[in-house]
Design brief:
The complex is a heterodimer of chains A (71) and B (332).
Chain A: H1 2-14, H2 30-43, H3 48-64
Chain B: H1 4-11, H2 30-33, E1 40-41, H3 53-61, E2 64-66, E3 70-75, E4 105-110, E5 112-121, E6 127-128, E7 131-132, H4 136-163, E8 165-170, H5 177-192, E9 198-202, H6 203-214, H7 231-238, E10 242-246, E11 249-250, E12 259-260, E13 265-269, E14 284-288, E15 296-302, E16 306-318, E17 326-331
Parallel strand pairs in B: 2-14, 8-17, 9-10
Antiparallel strand pairs in B: 1-15, 3-4, 5-16, 6-7, 9-13, 11-12, 13-17, 14-16, 15-16
Helix pairs in contact in B: 3-4
The chains are: A mainly alpha (71), B alpha+beta (332).
Chain lengths: 71, 332
């Protein structure tokens, strides 16, 4: 029982629920992550130029915090 | 005012309750406004209505300025605080003054027409003694206006979110949420050159902030008083002009789960309360006059068994200055 409970806890903390989309993190695939961010910003109403500027700033901000080391 | 009827009679105007005739001056009262059977633009349907909380919040978040359908604005090139710290503003004998210029980038934009039509079946209208209760068009028009305000607010918040540079923060018993907000305000100040006029706190963010300060596990109990701060006290603490608790709710379909219009996020930016086309605001809302000359228009198209009520407006929320718009993405 105790073992099963431990297994359950482990699963809950490490595995995504079935069918759940796992959002890409900057360190996993930085280019794809920021390309997706750019598309969302344009969709929200920013001009392409503005969206690119904000994504550039965001990338710099993330880099400061060591979030996108693989970028 | 008690002599109004007499005065109106002297002008040849008809008084309430009488039917208008061709070439006759009439008093535009409610009974006669509703008498039309053709499509008509009647801005008056919304005139004098008290602002709803939603509209007040919307105007606070995105102060409006009147423009034409097409308009131009100068986009800042981040050169508002250039300073001659090298003494180049001191003219040498016989020399000219240093020549400077501000260029900016001129952008042409247009307001978008946004509206909704509500087909009201006459069978659904409340009646007293067989007669429809008067003033129902106003109530339906007001409801449509509120829905349009909410849609534009959500659109504006999406633009604000897209324009912001974000930092992720955890708010819990071990953290200091108001310290994080102060750091965000400070970043806006450094980028914009002045303290932000707006700090926007999502409803869920405010809940998390209060939970963090109320937590029994908090080591510094003295900080727990922050949980009771009003938005005015928080603004004074942060040094921002105002803190807006954005506690709106949206629903995308009948019966669908209602969601916060702003969740676990906080923003800081600058927007002047009474904007002009070229003041240094991060966000502005341009609106152009519609039929009737105001910000909102109403068209009533009456048919035998139903009436179409259309409310529309023309506006565009835009970002003339990107720099300084900051966001905190929060988690527990």
């Amino acid at each position: 029982m105790a073992k099963n409970q431990t297994e359950t806890d482990k699963n809950e903390t490490t595995a995504a629920a079935p069918g759940e989309a796992v959002a890409a993190k900057p360190a996993d695939n930085a280019d794809a992550y920021y390309a997706d961010m750019l598309a969302k910003k344009i969709a929200a109403g920013l001009s392409k130029e503005d969206a690119e500027t904000v994504v550039k700033w965001q990338r710099e901000e993330d880099a400061k915090l060591g979030k996108n080391k693989k970028a | 005012m008690k002599h109004l009827n007499t005065l109106l009679a002297l002008t040849g105007a008809t008084i309430a309750g009488t039917s208008p005739e061709l070439n006759q001056i009439t008093v535009a009262n409610a009974a006669q406004n509703y008498a039309g059977s053709l499509a008509q633009d009647v801005a008056g349907y919304l005139a004098g209505l008290p602002s709803t909380d939603e509209e007040v919040l919307f105007n606070l978040l995105f102060p409006g300025l009147q423009t034409n359908d097409f308009f131009q604005f100068a986009k800042a090139d981040d050169e508002a605080f250039l300073t001659e710290s090298d003494d180049s503003d001191i003219r040498a004998i016989g020399a000219s003054f240093k020549r400077v210029e501000y260029r900016g980038t001129t952008v042409t934009e247009r307001t978008r027409q946004k509206g909704l039509t509500w087909r009201v079946d006459h069978k659904t209208l409340p009646k007293i003694n067989g007669k429809v209760v008067a003033g129902w068009e106003n109530r339906y028009a007001a409801a449509l206006k509120n829905r349009l305000v909410r849609a534009d607010k959500v659109r504006g918040l999406a633009l604000l979110d897209a324009s912001a540079t974000s930092v992720s923060k955890t708010w819990d018993a071990a953290s200091n949420p108001d310290g994080d907000l102060r750091a965000m305000v400070s970043l806006t100040r450094t980028a914009m050159g002045e303290l932000p006029s707006h700090v926007v706190l999502g409803y869920a963010a405010q809940q998390l902030r209060q939970d963090a300060y109320e937590a029994a596990a908090r080591a510094n109990h003295n900080m727990s008083r922050h949980a009771e701060y009003s938005m005015e006290q928080l603004a004074a603490y942060l040094g921002a002009k105002k803190v807006i608790l954005e506690n709106g709710i949206k629903q995308t379909a009948k019966g669908a789960t209602k969601a916060d219009t702003t969740g676990l996020v906080a923003y800081s930016y600058t927007a002047t309360d009474s904007p002009i086309m070229d003041d240094p605001s991060n966000l502005k809302r341009a609106w152009s006059p519609v039929d009737g000359g105001g910000e909102w228009a109403v068209a009533i198209q009456e048919n035998t068994v139903y009436t179409d009520i259309t409310v529309w407006h023309e506006s565009l929320i835009f970002v003339p200055i990107l720099t300084g718009i900051r966001k905190l993405a929060l988690s527990a």
